[in-house]
Amino acid sequence: MKRFTLALLLLASYGKVKSSSDFCWSENLGEKSRPCCKNDDGIVVLKDMNGSWGLEEDGMCGYRNKGYNWNLRDKYDDTREEWEAFKIKWDNEYRYNFERIAITPGEDESLLNFGWESVTDNKPYIRISKNSDMTDYKEFSGDNDFYRKLGGSTYYVNKVTVEGLEHNTEYYYQRKLNEDWEEAAKFTTSDPDNFKFVFVGDPQIGGSVSRVGYHTSKTFDYSEAVRNDAFNWNVTVNSFFKKTGNPSLLLSAGDQADTMGEDESQEQQYSGLLLPELIKTIPIAPALGNHEVYSESFRHHFNVPNPYKPKKLDTLSRISAYNYYFKYNNVLVVVLESNHNTCHDCEMVISNAIDEYPDTDWRIALFHHDLYGNGKTHSQGSSDGKRLRACLTGLFDIYNFDLVINGHDHVYTSTHFITYSSKNNKGENYKLSEIEEGKTIKNPNGTLFITANCSSGSKFLDFEDSSFDYVYQFNQTFTSTFGVLDFKNESGKVRMTINVYEVDSHDITDGPYIFEKDVKNTNEEGSDECWSTSLGYPCCETTKDIIYNSNKGSWGYENDSWCGINETEANTCWAYNDGYLCCKNTKSIQLINEDGDKFGFEDGGVCAFQRDAENLNIIMLDFRSKYAKI
C-alpha cells in the first residue's frame, strides 16, 4: 500500500494566489481558530481543507501564505475578470433558471433520454437532425406531469426518449420549452470500438457553504457558495472535455447538490450543475447522494432508464429515488441507490440488469457510499457504505463486476482487486488480489473499487488514521479531479484503461490501470438441470442455504465457489413477493402491522418474520417514522 499527497497545483489559467501581509486565515475558523505562525516558511506538519499548519512554541499555527486549500474562486487573479462577470450573470439570471435540460442515457446506445422542468404543462417535444439547420428532423414527444409550486411558479416535469441513434454520428437536437423551440445543440455518438467515459465524485454545488471567505472573517451563505461552486464545476466540465475530446458519457457518484431539502436553494444547485454549455452535449448518469435523498428534485431532473420499482409496502421519510441500469456499447452500467437500499433491492436490480444484458464485456457499478474507502468522515460508519459491504461484495463477485465507482468521503482511494470469501482472518467476507499500475492486467480477478474525490473542489476531507489491507492508493490533492475510462476493442481483445486527472493541470493523480480480456462470447442458455450454468456456475451439490436471490433461482456457496439453487425464497418466505426477505438471524420485532405480521431489521433493511416464528422479543423503537405504511 502506498500513499502520496500532492502539493496544491494551480494551472496558469487559475492564476496566482493573492497574498496579504496582515490577514490571518487561521484566526477565523470559529472553535478551530489558531494564530498565524510567526515564521511563514516553517515546516508544514498538517495540511487540511482550511490551509497548511505549523507547530511553534505556543502550539499549532496557520501559515499566513498557505491558506484556503479548497476551490475558493476569489483567490485566483487570472480568472478574476471572468469570475466577476459570472457573478453578475449568476445573481441576476442563471440561478433562477430551473428549466435546464438534462440528457441521460437510454436503455442502450441507440436511445437517449431527456428530462427538464417547465412552467407550462404543454406536451414536451425533442427534435433530432443530422443537419445543423435542423432539416430532415425527427420529432419525439413525451410526458408532462405536475411537480410542485415553488417561488410563485408552478413547475411541471417533462420526459422524452429519442430512438434510432446510429454509431459514430453527429446529431443536433432542439427542445420545445413552453411552446418555443430553442436553438439547436450538438452531440456526437461514439465509435463502438473506441470511446471514453468520464467519472466524477461529488460535484456538491453549494458544498462550500459556511466556509470562511477570502481575506475576511465572513462565511459563505448558500447563495455565495452555490455561485462559487457552479463556476468551478464549469471549469471541471470544460477541463474534462479538453482532455478527452468527446466523451460518450459522464458518470457522477452522487451529491450533485448540497442542500438536504426540497427548497429553492437545491434547485439553484441543480441549475449550477446543468449550467455548462457542454453538459447539454453529453448524457449524464448520476447516482443519488445522501444530500439529495430527502427531496424529489433528483428524480424530476433526470429521466433515467430501467428504473427499479420495488413492491415494498413501506414509505420512507427519505424519498426513494432510482436504482437503474443501461448498456452502452459493450459496457453494462448499474446505478444503485445506497442510502436505504436493502440487500434484496440490490440483488434484484443487478439480476434484472444481467438478465437483460448478459453479454457485455465490461460491468460497472455506480453508487454514492464508498464500500472500500478509508475516508475519515464516512467510510467506516455502520450507517454508510459499510452497511452494504457484506451484501454487495458477494453480488459483484458472482456477476463479475470489473469496476465500482463511489464518492461520499471527499478523498480519493483505489483498492486491490476484491472478491468474495466466506470469511477471512479478520472475520470479513472479502479476499484480495494484488493490482498494479502501468501494467496490462489480463483477465483481472476481482473488482476494483474507486472512491472519487470532490470534482468541484467545494469540500475536501481527510483519511482514517488506521491502515486497511484492501487499499492500494490514496491521496488528497486538495484540487478538483476527474477520472477517464478509455475503452478499446481490437483484434479480438477488449481493453479498459483508467486514469484520474487533476482538473487544472491534467496531471495524472492515479493510474493507469489497464485491464484486458478476450471479447466475450454470447452466453448459452442454462441446462435443464440448473439455471446458473449459463452464468458459468454449477448447481449446488449439498448446500440448500440461500445466500442471494435472483430472478431465475438462488445462489449458494460451497467448495469455495458460487453455485445455483433451483428455487428462490419466494417458495419459503410469505413476504417475498411484497419486496421483503424473511428474517434469518434477528429475533427482535421492531414493528407489527395492522394484520399482525411482524417485522425486524437486518442486513441494512426490513425483514419479515415467518408467521410461525417463536422466541421473538419486542424492542422499543420508533419504526413508524421510517416505515409508516407497513
From TrEMBL:
Q: What is this protein called?
A: Purple acid phosphatase
PANTHER family, alphabetized? ACID PHOSPHATASE RELATED, PURPLE ACID PHOSPHATASE
Q: According to the UniProt entry, where is the signal peptide?
A: 1-19
Q: What Gene3D superfamilies does its record include?
A: 3.60.21.10, Cellulose docking domain, dockering, Purple acid phosphatase-like, N-terminal
Ranges where the CBM10 domain occurs: 529-566
Record-linked InterPro entries: Calcineurin-like_PHP, CBM10/Dockerin_dom, Dockerin_dom_fun_sf, Metallo-depent_PP-like, PAPs-like, PAPs_N, Purple_acid_Pase-like_N
Q: Name one GO molecular function term.
A: acid phosphatase activity
The answer to whether UniProt assigns keyword rRNA-binding to this entry is no
EC annotation from Swiss-Prot or TrEMBL: 3.1.3.2
